[in-house]
């Protein structure tokens, strides 16, 4: 409480709230917890842009609990500038994450989609370096399949792998029952990301708080998804290679829509407390599914 009051006092001082004749910045005077809640409703690019509002806002985005990294955010910006991809610079400031004003015109022939992807690539790589993904409550990484290059899913998978490898959580939070290596991530949404078994192992061994997992249009070389914390799992139009097991003692809702799996692989679903199961998959996929379910599970 004292920390919040101190932050509020600093906000009033930096915004001129204590000087006569100056209207106080009431938004900036809110405590960090409320500002983070507001910023969590923004897309990642918008959240980063708040760093230019005032000194009070300069570093707030770094500790926002939810990140929504969306390729679609860059569609308008890419179409309105001739070539707006800054050169990589390890010494960039916070505002450089979203600065596209110092660009050259050497490659005017680059299509809007290519330019858009380069802007998104630069922003996301810098963002992943600046934010500790392991301390987030929610992460959404969305790549638009129709406008991304062919290698986009593999590159997005690389961003995620580096985050899993190098992002370290805080010291153990004993009051929450988490070990020193546990991520606090509760919700994870990935669209058009290439995933391998390293991702599955990370979910199983490190993401002990993960409750919601949604994968859409992902290419997955994952033999099994296991978790002791997952409650909701949604898999849409994913291309699987030898996925043979989905197992979670806490899973209550499982939705599999579309997608494909290796023809000679039988997928075994082990979820003893599941209450909602939706399987809208091709017949070839459906014939190779085995569900361990309770007798009380409604028929679909």
Automatic annotation (TrEMBL):
The F-box domain covers 24-77
Give one Pfam hit by family name.
LRR_At5g56370
Q: Which InterPro entries does this chain map to? A: F-box-like_dom_sf, F-box_AtFBL13-like, F-box_dom, F-box_SCFL_complex_component, LRR_FXL15/At3g58940/PEG3-like
Q: What residue spans carry the region label Disordered?
A: 1-25, 77-115
Matches recorded under PROSITE patterns: FBOX
Annotated Gene3D superfamilies: 1.20.1280.50
Output compositional bias ranges, type Acidic residues.
Answer: 93-107
| Name the UniProt record assigns to this protein | F-box domain-containing protein
The organism named in the record is Setaria viridis
């Amino acid at each position: 409480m004292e920390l919040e009051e101190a932050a509020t006092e600093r906000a009033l001082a930096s915004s001129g709230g204590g000087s006569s004749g100056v209207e106080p910045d009431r938004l900036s005077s809110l405590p960090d917890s409320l500002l983070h809640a507001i910023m969590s409703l923004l897309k990642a690019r918008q959240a980063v842009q708040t760093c230019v509002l005032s000194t009070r806002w300069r570093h707030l985005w770094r500790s926002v609990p939810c990140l929504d990294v969306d390729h679609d955010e860059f569609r308008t910006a890419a179409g309105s500038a001739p070539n707006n991809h800054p050169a990589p610079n390890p010494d960039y400031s916070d505002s450089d994450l979203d600065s596209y004003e110092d660009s050259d015109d050497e490659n005017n022939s680059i299509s809007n989609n290519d330019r858009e992807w380069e802007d998104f690539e630069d922003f996301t790589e810098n963002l992943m370096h600046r934010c500790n993904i392991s301390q987030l409550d929610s992460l959404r990484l969305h790549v638009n399949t129709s406008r991304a290059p062919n290698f986009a899913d593999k590159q997005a998978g690389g961003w995620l792998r580096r985050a899993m490898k190098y992002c370290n959580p805080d010291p153990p939070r004993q009051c929450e029952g988490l070990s020193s290596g546990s991520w606090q991530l509760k919700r994870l949404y990935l669209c058009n990301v290439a995933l391998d078994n390293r991702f599955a192992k990370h979910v199983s061994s490190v993401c002990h708080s993960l409750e919601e997992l949604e994968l859409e249009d992902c290419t997955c070389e994952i033999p099994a998804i296991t978790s002791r914390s997952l409650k909701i799992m949604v898999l849409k139009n994913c291309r699987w290679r030898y996925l043979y097991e989905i197992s979670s003692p806490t899973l209550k809702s499982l939705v599999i829509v579309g997608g494909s799996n290796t023809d000679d692989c039988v997928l075994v679903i082990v979820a003893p407390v599941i209450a909602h199961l939706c399987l809208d998959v091709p017949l070839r996929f459906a014939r190779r599914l085995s569900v361990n379910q309770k007798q009380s599970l409604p028929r679909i």
